[in-house]
Amino acid sequence: MGDSRYTGVLLYPRFSEYELSVLLSVLKQGGKRTIFLGLDDQPIRGEAGLPSKPEATIHDFDINLLDSIVLPGVDDFEHLVGHQELAEYLHKVDDQKRVIAAISSAPYLLSMGDVLAGKTYTTGLTTQQRTFLGTFEEENYVDAPVVVDDYLVTARGSAFIEFAFRVGDLLGLEYDKTWFYPDCRI
């Protein structure tokens, strides 16, 4: 790999482990460096109970070392609603035009940081949930499993395999799609 920058994988309480499973393998197969970033340095548990400890935080890892960032969904994101530090961080990442990927409920976090402004997107959140949250541009919602708009990838949680492939492709990684999906046509 010519680029030594990292893909940052955000970890926060109740993150969805399965939504990251194939993507982490694609990144590994492609030789991509990863860094697991937390909102702070405290250990957390994913939604299935997997204990995790971030390697660095959004406050202390040099953003210039990132060429991409991934946000997994969460089964209950009440603790992240209106999280100003996270919103500011995501806005800063977006200003740098890196690959940004969010799955399931995580596009809400992008909308909170104005990253979705003017971009097409999808999410696992319902119309009622998006309306209630009040941060989404409903006219840009696309009813599809995965949506790619320039450097931005969004997906529903059930599309975690295609999500991983789209992120890997945007990063120019070499990996074997048939390893995950023997009859792959994606």
Describe this structure in words.
One of its GO terms (cellular component) is cytoplasm. It holds the Pfam family DJ-1_PfpI. This protein has 186 residues and is α/β, with parallel strands linked by helices. The chain has a single domain, classed as Rossmann fold (3-Layer(aba) Sandwich). Helices cover 26% and strands 20% of the residues. The protein contains five helices and nine strands. α1 runs parallel beside α5. 41% of the residues are buried.
Outline of this structure?
Pfam families: DJ-1_PfpI. With 186 residues, the protein is α/β, with parallel strands linked by helices.
Outline: globular
Give me the side-by-side strand order of the main sheet.
5-2-1-6-7-9-8
Query: Percent of residues in helical segments?
Result: 25-40%
Structural class: alpha/beta
Unreliable sequence segments: none
Q: Major sheet: size, sense and barrel closure?
A: 7 strands, mixed
Q: What is the highest CATH level, the class?
A: Alpha Beta
The run of helices and strands is EHEEEEEHEHHEEH
Annotated CATH homologous superfamily: Class I glutamine amidotransferase (GATase) domain
Discrete helix count: 5
Distance between the termini: 24 Å
* Integer tally of domains: 1
* Percentage of residues in DSSP E strands: 15-25%
Indicate the CATH topology.
Answer: Rossmann fold
Whole-number mean pLDDT: 92
